[in-house]
Amino acid sequence: MMTQQPTQPCKCKSTALPDGQQRKRASSTPPPDAVQIFSKEGCPYTRALKRKLEHDGQSFVEYDVLKDPEMLQRMLALNGGQRRVPTIVMGEKVIIGFHGS
What is the pLDDT of residue 87? Predict the structure, then answer.
């Protein structure tokens, strides 16, 4: 029988918005220090990535490639045509996928 170790609560701020409010569409020009995340709704790897970035205090801009065809084309141009999310842009570096590190 395995016992679970108690986890420490995360000290990062919640990204939930008050009822009735919607997120604004991200601009096509993110802040220079922001990580760009190309994602699709419901992706567990993207959720994990966003939690890590929030925990680390790193700003990011998220683009939903299923809802925004322009961002899908941008993602495909950045990652060599792969339809894999999350595709992450950090400065000049493009990373495909997130595995928790």
Answer: 97
- Give CA angle at 92 (86, 96), nearest 5°: 20
pLDDT tens digit sequence for 76-99: 999 999 999 999 999 999 999 998
Can you give the residue ranges of every domain in the chain? 35-96
d(CA 37, CA 49): 9
- Which one-letter DSSP state was computed for residue 87? E
Distance CA 38, CA 28 (A): 12
| CATH superfamily assigned to domain 35-96 | Glutaredoxin (3.40.30.10)
Rounded Cα gap, residues 64 and 85, in angstroms: 10
pTM: 0.70
* Calpha distance 84→75 (Å, rounded): 9
Q: What is the pLDDT of residues 11-64, one digit of tens each?
A: 544 444 444 444 444 555 667 789 999 999 999 999 999 999 999 999 999 999
